[in-house]
Design a protein that fits this description.
Layout (H helix, E strand, L loop, with lengths): L13 E6 L15 H16 L4 H8 L2 E11 L8 E11 L3 E10 L2 E13 L10 H7 L2
Antiparallel strand pairs: 1-3, 2-5, 3-4, 4-5
Amino acid sequence: MPDPATDTTLPPPHRFALRVYYEDTDLAGIVYYANYLKFIERARSEWVRARGVDQGALHRAAGLVFAVRRLTADYLAPARFDDTLGVETRLVTLGGARIVLDQAVLRGAIVLFRAEVTLACLDRGGRAVRLPAEIRRLLGP
């Protein structure tokens, strides 16, 4: 698998900006570890929206949702209260029923957190199903 941080043949990442609020931090003013998952969730939602997929409409019309199936994370450096951060999201793999994304939380050029997230497309019953062709086209490279 290519390294998304250095492979110039990959399309540019989707970028999502956020600020660290007091509620995101612990007593020491450092971002609480679980909040990085919230940050990358927001960025994934914006990545999907930017690709032209309305998740609410997809759920109402076809009963389909995206759910995290697997996540591996590396906490590399702390973010702190009032930091301005960016979350970069890149498509790694688009399979029949799954999407693999590389996500990084950065302060400027410094990577603070990196995760590989596998999403599954699920039906109303919670079973994995193939992504519809139109959704694959919109989310694909």
